Amino acid sequence: MDGISFASLAQIKVLLLPVGKISQQSFEKWANLIRSFDHIRLDEIPPDTREGQSRFMPAPMSNGYLHLTYPSHPPPPWHTSLSLFRISHFPLGVIGIADCSKPDTPLTSVLTEFHTALEQYFPIESAFPLASRCYAFEEGDENSQLNMASSDPRLVVIPSVMGNKQVYVGTLISELCTEILSSFANLAKALESPSGIAALSGQQLPVISRSDDLGGHFMQYTFGLPKKSRPSTFSHSSSFNNVSSLRDSMDTPSNGIRPHPHRATTGMTPSPSGSALTAVNSSPASKKRTTTYMSATSNGRLGKIVADLYLLSGRTSDAVQWYVESLAQIRGPQDMIWQASALEGMCLAEVLDLWSATDAPLPPVPGSKPPWSDISARLEQAVSLYSRASPAMSSPTPSGQLLDTESPTLSLLLCQAALRHAHFLLAVWSNKGMGRSAFDTMLGQTPFQPLSLTSPSEGLFQRMSAITSIPRSMIAEAINPAHGPHIMNMLQRDQLQVLSLMAAMFSCLGFRRKEVYILREVLAVIMDMIVASREEATAKAAKAIMSGEASEGKSPAPQNPGLGIAGAGFENSGSLPNSAATSGAGTVGVRANVSDDGNESVLRVVKYVCDIYGVDLSKIGITRPGSDPPEDENKEDNKPNTASEEDEGTGEPFGSPELQLGVVREAVAIAEALPDYPALAQFSLSTLRVMNPHLTHSEQLHLYTTSGRALATARRRGDHVVVAYWASKPVLSLEITPLPFSRTPIQHPMSDLEPRSSGEAAGILGGRRDPFIYNPRLKSASASEVVTVQNEPVEFVITLYNRFCFDLEMQSVRLSSGLAARPEERSKRRQSLVEAAKAAPPATQTFLTCKVVEEQPLLRIRRTTLSHGAVMLYDGESSTFRLTVENISSIPVDFIKLAFDDTSMSTAQQSLADGELSVAEAYETEYDLVNRPVFTYQGISNQSIGPEKKATIAVTCFGKLGCSHGSVQISYSFAQRPRDSPAEVFHTRQIIHPVEISVFETLRCETMDVIPFWHANVSGFEDPTPGNLFQISDPDQWCLFSVEVSNKYDAPFEVTFDRVQDESKDSTTRLVSPGATVRIILPLKRLSLPAAVTEQPIPTLSNRQFVVSKEKLSAAEEQIQRELFWYREHLFKSLKAHWREPSSGRQGEVYLRSLRLTMPMLRALQTAPCQLQITLIRQEDDNEAVRRGLKYVATPCEFYFIRARITNCSSSPLSFSLSYIPAYFGLMDSALFDSSLSQIPVGLLPSGDSVEVDTGVCFVDSGLFEFKAILQGSEDHVGHEYYE
To answer: Average of pLDDT values for 46-53?
Structure first.
């Protein structure tokens, strides 16, 4: 903050120097005591009564303050050009701090070392400091020196017995300030001399030096010495007497205030009123400036310098007056920096006045400008003037020197002005207004660091901006002029100071990206300085070797360390200029002693920059044996590697990979250039870990080799660092190899051991025992749960993945188990683990779990009667094969259950599961699965199989078209084993025996028909095979069933149809030749089903609760569908069909359920609820007319009766009506009837009764007359047409 803080223009710098052998702790202790006097009231400054020395002295009872700052480093020598332009930039006073507690430390040596330090830090040409003192502090009472008095007034001894040292030190500082203010008058007098006027107007930045005329006048006015002479204060002295004699020879003392020689030994607090000096009030109003030889430029510049002196003297009103007068005279383009400096001084004077008079923040006046706006505007104007005067960038010469020597100074002034403006706005913004706290921050009384808020929120930033009317962007815009091409004109030390302060300000504003952007430039400047210093050291070392200093016992300066070997690998060809090879010493490898001081701070900045960009360079921990991990590293990285997701980072990634790679490359280069080998290894390995997806193969290999070389170098130099596991997580997956299917145990509830009547059908239809189609309460077994068996080996599969381009050598792979698998040890282990878990912190490792079940028996299929595991069948044929199983374990088997599967079953089950079938189709599918299974279990020879025992299982295979493959699944277990407590589950193992099935189609039923039985239908039947098959006494109670059977095979088959009705049984057999189709007719007794049967819904053979038809049918259509279904079921129950191959005797079933029943077939199959007989009767004799075949012969013009005999064959009384309908149009014109032919009432007819109804008719013409009689009956007022 030196020279850049807002109040630096008004602060008198007093340099603090350690003198002699003083510890750092003691120096900091007394330096802090001196720094506590950061401002002194003007009325506490002792006056200087000498003539001409009171010009800048404060008037008695003044209200202002003198502001002090105490740096510990002098300004660099290249800032000499600012010696007049900015006097506040240089130490105007020097205070040496010495420790005189030891008896062997004489005061003469202390004073000599103090003068030597002044000679070292201030060149002989320098006009500064204006005053100097050496304070020798005594600590402790036991070793106090008896004679602590000093004859030199510049050395003041402060004994340990002094009570209130702070008051005394304050008095001494006040006297030092008096000397400095007196020197201001001498400086102004020198500037007003002709040589001073000439110096001010001679160049843009005039310089005061003791070797020129201006410095000569200053020395003459100050010390009374001739020009170009120097007071002996700044000369080397070896004895106190020489210094004293030179001091005594001076006509005028340099300070004007001499403390009493014995004042420090009295222990009393000195008082300014005790001095014999009197104050003389002198103001610029009573002084007239000489203007005879002054030009406008020199007058303006002189006025600006005088104003600066008044500002440093605490007289702000006089300073403002002089600033205004100087601004009125310096208007030329060569005076822009002088104008800017005057504007800065005016702003600071205004702030000092506000600081003196303000305790609370200045409230904004409604409708007016903010109180800080005028000051900010003038500061902004000053920055603009500096920017116009400062060149963008100066071109260096081939030797590296700048062509324009003023460019670095002008660029520095621009940066200081911009940062001073930003400091002003930042102080107002951070303190929420222009109050006392803001002014303290501006004056440096409040440190700059507290401006950096701890984790501030965006809302807090917005509130602060709303209160002060200063947005953060405005402060950032004020900082930006300090960063530009002109910064390259400055020297590296100035660049480092400016960039560091810019980064700190951006950090306070919460602009982290801008902060780290500037910090990257800070790191670049630091590394440039390191490289430059090493090159200089290398040149000095080479020069020392060439000059032979090494042979004289002098050790050359350390060279560039690299990997620790200097000159290694260079030939005698002179590849290294001025190398030791040319002098015969190139064969000796010299390792430089590299100091790591400051590396930690640089690396901390590097890590912070990378962290803001989203790269964790501390991901890989670096530890040393016997030491704790570094505090700033992530503690989790030093833990053993675990197979958890934390290895990859749980935080959400952010940032641009391209930008991150650039930052990481810089970090690795910085660590390599410092050099810090552990950090280099850490950065390289952390980059490999974090940025691996974005690194090329060459970059990965470079980082890997770099880390290896860095670790090897560190260990070779004695730093035995230990690198944490860095290769991320090579274990991609850890899995337990599943047991083979024949060894996998399957869990079942103990209720499965109970016999179930419908369990087999439910398993065939879908394997689901739940009555609901979807049951959300059912929980499927976890797919990740692995089941193992006690006392059986378990295999693990570990998948390793190398994400790098180089080989990784796996030294060992081992498993860590968390719980033993033995049941007898499980409870003991569980108890110990629970106790350990209570005492230990939560574990971060996760284990792969598995379930261990009891020992299980093991069966194998010893032999089978199938040849090559295949069977060939005709459609409908059955064949039995046997399986012999053997128990090859020591556990007996007491439970065996068989299940079957085939290709036709899976297709049917999928159709049922889809739910797209109608109710009738779903029934047929379920009927085929339940009643025509491919495999049938016939039994087992021994249900209990002991160890090393065998058993035979018989299975029947049924030939079904569409089935090509099947399997027999044998489930077995030792379920009823002795247990201490009842078990809820048991486990089974399974054996699956595949069977290949070939089914050949033989006979197919093409079409079916059911017609009424009339003798005329079979009168022409020529086949003698039926015999008495059609000799039916009551044909109205019978119907004819006919079906066409085709032979699809290349061999003849005999097909037989059997009628298996209760009261009558008969059969017919026909031979069907290959490729032929035979029609088979069989009489069936007509069926009559009660309404209670035909009205039932179509059932389902499964236990599914909801079966909804996909078709939208009306009530009548649904009733017809049900009648067709139930009559078809009873029809197939009355018929059995089978075939036989005559040549081989093989036989099987004929599949009939593919045939469908239609409504005409249903009417022919149903038994009629009534009977109607029509006869033609002559009226004259009441006899039946002559009949020829099925026709009656009647005589025209005679009267006849058409007699209808109606019989109720149903089980309930019915009401009938009779109608006659002529067969063709015009028939009624040739016949006369005695009544209406439609709806002839018959009346209620009881069950089994008959009635005759006569209708008179007379045929008036000859011809063929055909009538259709329709009998309609009704029951419960519901009409039905029964007969036609």
So the answer is: 78
